[in-house]
Fold this sequence. Notes:
Blueprint: H1 3-28, H2 45-49, H3 63-66, E1 78-87, E2 92-102, E3 107-123, E4 140-156, E5 163-176, E6 180-195, E7 198-205, E8 210-216, H4 218-222, H5 227-230, E9 240-244, E10 247-257, E11 262-273, E12 282-283, E13 288-299, E14 303-316, E15 323-337, E16 340-353, E17 356-371
Antiparallel strand pairs: 1-2, 1-17, 2-3, 3-4, 4-5, 5-6, 6-7, 6-8, 7-10, 8-9, 10-11, 11-13, 12-13, 13-14, 14-15, 15-16, 16-17
Amino acid sequence: MSQFSSAARGLLLLGASAVLALPVAAQSTKTPKYSNEFLNLGVGARALGMGKVQVALANDATAGYWNPAGLVNQTHKYDGVLMHSELFSGVVKNDYGAFSMPLDDKSSIGVSVMRLGVDNIADTRSLINEYGQINYDKIEYFSVADYALLLSYARKIGNVEGLSVGANGKLIYRNIGKFAHGYGFGIDAGVQYNRKGWNLALMARDVTTTFTQWSINGDEYLKGINSTYANTADGIPTNSAEITLPRFVLGVGRRIELPKQFTALVAVDLETTTDGERGTPISTKAVSVDPRGGLEIGYRNLVFLRGGAGNFQKISSVVDQSMQWKGQYSFGAGVAISGLRVDLALSRLAVEKLGSTSQTNSLIVSLGYGFK
Length: 372
């Protein structure tokens, strides 16, 4: 039996075993849906332009996020990536930076930093005093932001060519102005196999579950609320712990050589969440599966065009309450010259509104540089 067949069967068996073991864990733990969801928005304009299909393809500093096992496959000794995107007409800022390098000929390390935040939110609780007078000088401003630090390690498996494993240790800090903050930690693990143009991978996010502890500043929560509002104010939130259940991504990709120095890279991911039933094409009370697909056309490894689709959900129409499938579609382009990579992506989310379809667009820009 070939190494390719053995590795492929091993990946599929690992993925199937993990998914079959999930219902018990999901039923025995009560957790909120979409916990730490900011970690699942994706990074890098190349990946986002391909519909976030990347666990089997990542081979630069972004692999620390998508699949740390891919860090050992980067083409340059040192690699760095910066990304900035703005969501909801610029209200939400999404920033990311990563760096990776080899330790020796079989292992690599990487570090990634992420921030998703809304800044300059007006706190108008003290705008009107107890006498009904308005004082604009009393307006204060605060930010709501989520941060993550990922420390990654990857290593090639000696006897199987093209096979590598990797893991992330991640630290999370979530801040709601002076009102509340949360600290969390967790572990991701991944495996990647590349052979004769084929790419196979399995990524397990929050594989040990991720724990986040929230602390509430009750004094700050009530500060500035006058007696009139204080009598009718809702109860102060209490300190609490939040558990993020595992999610698994099984990916496959194929690189195809085309005539006249063109290439095509086709990939599909199956993302399985374990926090209950979601509006995905495959959904049960225990797990939900969201399929994604992506395509990249390249010319002489210099210029690239990309497209992708995913996040398919059944949405109820406001007009007639009929259920319709909606997806998130993305497009992108990139240029790579002498180790410098410039990538752009446009992610388009269809939103059902009063029976018509409006479009919410997000522009993502990322820069990457690899050097020896």
